[in-house]
Design goal:
Rossmann fold; single chain; binds 2'-deoxycytidine-5'-monophosphate; 9 helices; alpha/beta
């Protein structure tokens, strides 16, 4: 079984690169951020604050969340409905960061992630894959980039999708999410001690992919 952990902050290029690597190696790509986004959407639909742990717990412990694959792409299914597009709404990002700080949410999602990784060759992108979810993963990478570069990438992505966003507020939100994700008590955004760090600020996705592939070829 091959497991590749690809961690890093928002906008570091993880998902683009993870998709490319999954295709090259013909393995599964698991976007773990989508799972936390689905938890946030579930809370929103249930009218529960993502910061209220006692209200969130019963909702998430019974969540009907499935990760499926159609034509090689991940489909996030919540309560039987494809929410893959819905969870990309900009307002869901901050809510996902908040809900992911709750231990009950993380324990549930990590259990699902470990089960998928145990049964399949896959590359997982997230914040705590190498440091917590799969500490024994064969390959661990931590990608990072300057916060302005990351905000620019997100900005382009959202504009292309037709979302009305403002660069400055997006940059602020990215900094706030970096802070939240790396300061929570349980399984924070963290570079695993044995991860290979790649600064992608001045690199294209293809270059990052090549670099990661060169390490994979080496072992
Ligand atoms: O990767 P993303 O931006 O879609 O993730 C949304 C939020 O989910 C992110 O701000 C923090 C959280 N997250 C997490 O805590 N752990 C993961 N493995 C993946 C995402």
């Amino acid at each position: 079984m091959i497991n590749i952990a690809l961690d890093g902050p928002a906008g570091s290029g993880k998902s683009t690169v993870a998709k490319m690597i999954a295709k090259k190696l013909d393995i599964l790509y698991l976007d773990t951020g989508a799972m936390y986004r689905a938890c946030a959407l579930k809370c929103l639909k249930s009218g529960v604050s993502v910061k209220d742990e006692s209200a969130v717990e019963p909702i998430i412990s019974n969540i009907d969340l499935k990760i499926e694959y159609k034509n090689g792409s991940q489909v996030t299914v919540l309560d039987g409905e494809d929410v893959s597009l819905d969870i990309r709404r900009p307002e869901i990002s901050m809510m996902a960061s908040d809900v992911s700080a709750l231990k009950c949410v993380r324990l549930k999602m990590v259990e699902m992630q470990r089960l998928i990784a145990k049964n399949m060759n896959c590359i997982l992108d997230g914040r705590d894959i190498g440091s917590f979810v799969l500490p024994d993963a064969e390959y661990k990478f931590f990608v990072t980039a300057d916060s302005k570069v990351r905000a620019e990438r997100r900005y382009k992505e959202l504009i292309e999708r037709g979302n009305a966003v403002e660069f400055e507020s997006l940059h602020k939100e990215i900094l706030q999410r970096d802070y939240n994700d790396s300061h929570r008590d349980f399984a924070p955004l963290k570079q695993a001690d044995d991860a290979i760090v790649i600064d992608t600020s001045a690199m294209t996705a293809e270059e990052v992919c090549e670099k990661i592939m060169s390490y994979i070829g080496r072992k």
